[in-house]
Design a protein that fits this description.
Layout lengths: L11 E5 L4 H10 L4 E6 L12 H4 L4 E5 L4 H11 L4 E4 L5 H4 L4 H4 L7 E4 L16 H8 L1 H4 L14 H24 L4 E3 L2 H7 L13 H7 L12 E3 L5 E6 L9 H5 L6 H6 L1 H15 L4 H10 L3 E4 L3 H6 L1 H5 L3 E6 L3 E6 L23 H7 L4 H9 L3 E2 L12
Parallel strand pairs: 1-2, 1-4, 2-3, 4-5, 5-6
Antiparallel strand pairs: 3-12, 7-8, 8-9, 10-11
Helix pairs in contact: 1-8, 6-9, 8-9
Length: 401
């Protein structure tokens, strides 16, 4: 790992998280300069095989401890003595059973900021129930509300609850650290995947008893698909565009005018399904006759929203994307040289940086424990007892994830 950079330099985080929300939330802290030590169970984090982990768990060191053993628990407590933050995403009650709950740690480590990200928040009727992204999507109403290509609920492949909770975690930890500057004391920071769902909504729920005619056609589930799916068109040469969308400007021409089609009353499209079907077919045919770049230019001149549907590989290789640091070359111990998303938050005066690829499980066990005061012979004994692991090696002599 390189020397940490960024405004959180000097802050140490113990990362006991797994899944998505915890690792990504901790990644945001790591690449703002925090020294992150990932504490993994024997054999390593069971989710290491997931492709996203090579990004989500980068920029940190790894120590493997068996927290179910007294000496493994004692080792974590010694690490807490030099830590500012502990993040855990275990199932409800797991940290209590290990004797590592906030209530048990706070008296000994009053400055520790202790962050938890369960599936459901404290006080929720399912607060004691384990859960993961998809089940929280279901229970929260997100799948029921999601527009789909058919009637009924829809599963979101994008892990929306987790990818919102990661930001709630990071902002909560930073707020607690800021408060600690005044009080000298840490606190328990709690968010959840369930609260992540709510962060993506307007955060106010309302039922319209007498909605306007367009309300249901725009907001409710529709079959065939709704307005945003029908804003995607194939152009000449097989290129795609997302066109004729809102961009906050008052348009000077209609899409029909640009495409050489007869004008149509937009209100009629919502009340006459046959007219809508004929109009969509005419649009599709007209788009296929026009080069995409030419169309985008005309749409922008007419103050209409339109952009190319770009393959992700093209985005990552674009010179501007690279020049702005939005992509990074990261050396991963398992994969070798990789192209990954760069540091998402930019502070001009104290910029952060990628600190290295996902470490091998236990790659820093000896280094981290030595920093906590363990002598080499003590570490050797813990390794021999299976309480501590250095990075595991397979039968063929290579690292086993």
């Amino acid at each position: 790992m390189t020397e940490p950079a960024g405004p959180l330099r000097g802050v140490r985080v113990l990362d006991l998280s797994w899944g998505i929300a915890g690792p990504v939330g901790v990644l945001l802290l790591a690449e703002l300069g925090a020294d992150v030590v990932k504490v993994e169970p024997p054999g390593g984090d069971p989710f290491r095989a997931q492709p996203g982990y090579h990004v989500w768990n980068r920029s940190r060191r790894s120590v493997v401890l068996d927290l179910k053993e007294d000496e493994g628990r004692d080792a974590l407590l010694r690490l807490c003595g030099g830590a500012d933050v502990l993040v855990e995403t275990f199932s409800p009650g797991a940290m209590d059973r290990l004797g590592l709950s906030y209530d048990e740690l706070a008296p000994a480590f009053p400055r520790l900021v202790y962050a938890s990200v369960p599936a459901y928040p404290p006080g929720h009727r399912f607060a004691g129930r384990p859960g993961w992204d998809a089940t929280v999507q279901a229970r929260s109403g997100m799948q029921n509300e999601q527009p789909a290509w058919r009637p009924g609920p829809a599963y979101l492949h994008f892990p929306a609850p987790s990818m919102a909770a990661c930001f709630l975690l990071a902002s909560g930890v930073l707020s607690a650290l800021l408060r600690r500057e005044e009080t000298g004391r840490g606190q328990h920071v709690e968010t959840s995947l369930y609260q992540g769902v709510l962060a993506y909504t307007t955060q106010i729920w309302q039922e319209h008893e007498k909605p306007p005619p367009r309300f249901h056609t725009t907001m409710a589930k529709t079959y065939p698909p709704g307005i945003h799916q029908t804003s995607l068109f194939e152009c000449a040469d097989g290129e795609w565009v997302h066109a004729a969308t809102m961009n906050g400007l008052a348009p000077t021409r209609t899409p029909e005018d640009i495409l050489g089609l007869d004008p149509v009353d937009p209100r009629a499209l919502y009340t006459d399904p046959a007219l809508r079907a004929r109009h969509e077919a005419a649009l599709s045919a007209a788009y296929r006759q026009r080069p995409r770049d030419e169309l985008i230019e005309e749409f922008h001149e007419a103050r209409l929203g339109a952009e190319a549907v770009t393959p992700m590989a093209d985005v990552f290789s674009h010179p501007q994307f690279v020049a702005n640091g939005m992509t990074a070359t990261v050396e991963d111990p398992e994969l070798g040289s990789t192209t990954q998303v760069g540091v998402p938050g930019v502070l001009r005066a104290t910029p952060g940086a990628v600190q290295g690829g996902q470490p091998r499980a236990g790659a820093h066990s000896r280094e981290v424990l030595a920093g906590a005061g363990y002598a080499d012979d003590e570490i050797d004994r813990l390794v021999a007892a299976g309480i501590v692991e250095e990075h595991p090696v397979g039968e063929d002599g290579t690292w086993a994830p």
